[in-house]
Amino acid sequence: MAVRFGYTILYVPDVPATVSFYEAAFGLKRRFVHESSLYAEMETGETALAFASETMAELNGLAVRANRRSDLAAAFEIALVCSAPHEAYEKAVSAGASPVKPPEEKPWGQVVGYVRDLNGCLVELCSATPA
C-alpha cells in the first residue's frame, strides 16, 4: 500500500475571507473555491492547503475545536517557505496577521518567524532548510 500526503484542511468560520486573507498576507493563489463557499484550495505546489467551513465539519459528522484569534493557538502550524522571511513577515502583519515572533536565524541556518492568521492559526514563515 502506497501512501502520500495529499492536502491539509483547516476548518474556518469564513472560507472566502480566509482565501482572501491568504492571498493578501502570503501571496498564495486560489486554486479552487466551491460555489457553496464551504471549501477552497490554495495553490501551494504539489500539496494543497485547503479551507473548509466549520459547517462542513458538522456535515461530515466531525466535532472540531474552532480556531479563533482570541484563543490560544492550536498545536499545529502551517509552514510557508519563502525567499525573504523578514519581508514575508512584514507583508503578513501589514495584511492583518497577528505578529507572534519576528524572523530569526536558527542554529541550523534557517530563518524562521511566526504570525497568526485571521482565524488564529499559527503560520511559520521561513527560509528553506539548509541542505
Can you describe this structure in just a few lines?
This protein is an alpha/beta fold.
Provide structural commentary.
- With 131 residues, the chain is an alpha/beta fold.
- The chain is 21% helix and 35% strand.
- It has helices at residues 15-26, 54-59, 85-94, and strands at 7-12, 29-33, 39-43, 48-53, 77-81, 98-105, 111-116, 122-126.
- The strands form two sheets. Strands 1-4-3-2 form a four-stranded mixed beta sheet.
- The longest helix is centred in the N-terminal third of the chain and has 12 residues, at 15-26.
Query: Could you give the count of β-strands?
Result: 8
Provide the structure class: alpha/beta
Tertiary shape: globular
**Average pLDDT:** 96
Compute the CA-based radius of gyration.
15 Å
SS summary, helix count: 3
- DSSP strand content: 35-45%
Sheet having the most strands: 4 strands, mixed
Query: Which strand order spans the largest sheet, edge to edge or round the barrel?
Result: 1-4-3-2
